[in-house]
C-alpha cells in the first residue's frame, strides 16, 4: 500500500459508531447498527480490493445523514467535501414517500459518481446478505423476494464499475 489511510478510516468508523450508538438493525437479534456500515467497508476492502480512502470513509458514514441527526456540515468539517459529497449522493430524501424513494434509487443509480456507485453496490450486497442470513423476523418470503428484485434493479444501474463486486451480488441473488 502506498499510503496509510488508517487514521481517516478509523476516525470515520468511530464517528459512525457514536452516531448510530442507539440504533439497531431490523434482524431478530436487533444487532448493533454499526455492524452494517462496517460490513460495507469490509466488503469493499476485502472482497473488492478497494483501497480508496474516500470510498471507505463514505461507506462507514453512508447512513449517518439518512438515519441519525448528523448534518452535511458536520461531515464536511470532519471529513471534507469529497467524503461528504459521496455520502450525500447515497442519502435518500426522507421527506419523500417510501415508494418514491425506492423508485428514485433505481432512476438515480446510473447517474451518481463511481465512488457513490461502489458504496451503493456494497450496501445492496450487505442488505441482501442480511435478508438471506438474518432478515427482519416479520418478513414473509414474498417480501424478501420483493426486496431482492428491487435491489437487483438498483444494481442494474450501477454496473460497469466493479465486475468482481457485481459478481458477488449476482451470486447472492442466484443462490437465494
Ligand atoms: P425497507 O425496504 O426499508 O427495509 C429494508 C431496509 O432496512 C434495508 O434497505 C436496510 O436499509 C435496512 N435494514 C435494517 N436491518 C436489516 C436487515 N436485517 N436486513 C435487511 N435490511 C435491513 O422496508 P420497509 O419496511 O421500510 O418497507 C419498504 C417497502 O416495502 C415499501 O415500499 C413497501 O412497498 C414494501 N412492503 C412490502 C410488504 C410485503 O409484504 N410485500 C409489506 C410492507 C411493505 P439501510 O441499509 O439503509 O439500513
Ligand atoms: Zn445501508
Account of the protein in words:
There is one protein chain. The chain is an all-alpha fold and 176 residues long. It has a single domain (3-175), classed as Hypothetical protein af1432 (Orthogonal Bundle), CATH 1.10.3210.10. It has helices at 6-19, 35-47, 53-61, 64-67, 72-89, 98-108, 114-133, 141-156, 163-175. The longest helix is centred in the last third of the chain and has 20 residues, at 114-133. It is globular. The chain starts with 5 loop residues before the first helix and ends with a helix. NADPH dihydro-nicotinamide-adenine-dinucleotide phosphate is lined by residues 25-27, 36, 63, 98-99, 102, 123, 127, 130-131, 134-136, 140, 142-143, 146-147.
Please give a handful of descriptors for the protein shown.
binds zinc ion; 0% strand; Hypothetical protein af1432; binds NADPH dihydro-nicotinamide-adenine-dinucleotide phosphate; 176 residues; globular; mainly alpha
